Structures are given as structure tokens and as C-alpha cells.
Amino acid sequence: MLEKLHTLHQRFLKTQPHGRRALLRSCDLHGLNFNGLDFSAAEFVACDFTGATARGAVFRSANIFSARFDDADLSGADFGRADLRGATFERANLTDTRLNGADLRDGAVLDGEGASEASSGSTFVSALLRGTNMSGCKLKNADFSGAVLEGTDFSSADLRAAQFAGAEIVDANLRGAQLADADLRGASVSGDMLKQIDVSLAKTSRVLKLDDKALIMHLSDHAQWIESGGNAGKRANFADCDLSGLDLSGSNLSAAQMDRAVLAGARLAGARLLAADLRGANLIRADLTSADLRGADLKGANLRNATMTGVMIGGLPGTSRVTLMSG
Q: pTM of the predicted model, to two decimals?
């Protein structure tokens, strides 16, 4: 069926007799193989491409409004100037994919009575975007939470109010990008990306990088706070802070406030994190060997490639609190 559809569409593109433009709406294309096929200028409105493979496929200037590409392999595909408003790419492989000039803003599909069938901003949650070309893309309100953005080209893209919580951003190109209200809190950033942008326009978590002296002071105050039942010392508040690569092995961080903290590559072996607030924290490649996470809240935390050997999770003795984790 797909092969016939492609043949007819190719005839349409070449203005040959008996050609027919591919026009699909709300079709289940789950798991199909689009590798190398050319559907430029086609319509796949609200179609489900979940788990499909489209390596090297071409969808230039296509109308793929509100489509779903979750868990799809789109490596090397070309979506240049496509209408992808409201599309989802959760956990998708977008390595070397070309999305330059595509429209990925919010979108909704209406049924025959004008009611919304689906409504969501374009999302790339936990997607892989290595070498992806998103130059000039319209990405207002897009969600890149937990995504890997390595060598991604966002030059001149509209990233206003985009979300990057828990993302890993390595050598991304943001020159000329619009970043007003973009939320980079909880993102692990490598390379000179922050030198390319006016960080006053974006929300970032890299405002506080603790040195050893400051860290020791915060941990000492927190220990007193725990031992005194809150009557002395001060509860550690590392919310939105950059703690990447620090050695916190064996530290007592029970009940510490660490939501959206960047702990990429941090050493937390044997740390006591009972009832700690780690919501949205970035823990990629962190060493949590034998850490005590009973009663901790890790909703939305990025634990990609974290070492979890011997971690203690579950109920916190004497309380109703239990470890909360995404998924």
C-alpha cells in the first residue's frame, strides 16, 4: 500500500499522467518503513508515525500538521520547510535530520464540528538530536526536556519560551536565535553556547557554580539543620544550581532542595538523599552507587547513563513518603 502511494505521489511530483498527491489524515502509519522515500509536498495531517523508520526520507514542504513521530528513526531525513505544528518527536532519533525552516509551533487538529482532536506544542522530550539542522525553525514553546542536543544547529531559530529541563546541550549553534523566556534551567551545557546568546533573555541554572569552600559551608549548615531538627543551621537549597562534576560522595543531603539542579557527572556514591527534592534535576552520568533515595522526589529527573547500582528506593521509615520517579 505504501509503495503504491509513493509511486502515485512521485508521478504527481513529476507531473506525469495518473499521478496523485499523497493526502492522508489521521492514518495509522505505526512502524512502517519510509526509508529513502520522497513525499515532498505531501499531506499527513494528524497521522501516527510512532516507531516508524524514515532514514533518508524526504518530506520537504510537506503538511505534517500534528503528526506523531514518537520512537521513530528519522536519521538523515529531510523535513525542510515542512508544516510540523503540534508534532511530537518523543524519544525519536533525529541524527543529521534536516528541519531547517520548518514550522514547529503549537498546533491543534479540529474535527468536523470544530472541536479539538489534539492540542500540543511540538515536543522533542528525550529525543536524540545530533547534528540536527534546525536553523530558522519556528520552535516557540517547543519542549526539549531530557533531549540530547549535540552539534544541533539552532541558528536564527525562534526558541522563545522553549523548555530544556534536563537536556544535554553540547556545542549547539544558537547564533541569532530568539531566546526570550527560554528555560535552560536544569540543562547540562558544554562548549561556548552561553557566549553566543544574551543569557539575560533566558532562564538559566548556571548562575551559581559553587567552589569547594562554598560547598563545604552549605553542607555543614545543612548537617546542623538536620541534627538540630531545623533549630540550627540552614537547609541546603541547591535549586537551579550548577553542581555538575562535583564530588558529593557520602554527603548527607537528606531533605535538601535540589529541584532542577544540574548534577551531570556528579559523584553521589553513598550519599544520603532521603526525602530530597530532585524534581527535574539533571543527573546524566551521575554516580549514585549505593545512594539512599528513600522518599526522594525524582519526578522529571534525567537519569540517562546514571550509575544506579545498589541504590535504595522505596518508603521512608516512619513516614508516608515513598521514592517518586518518572515512568
A: 0.84
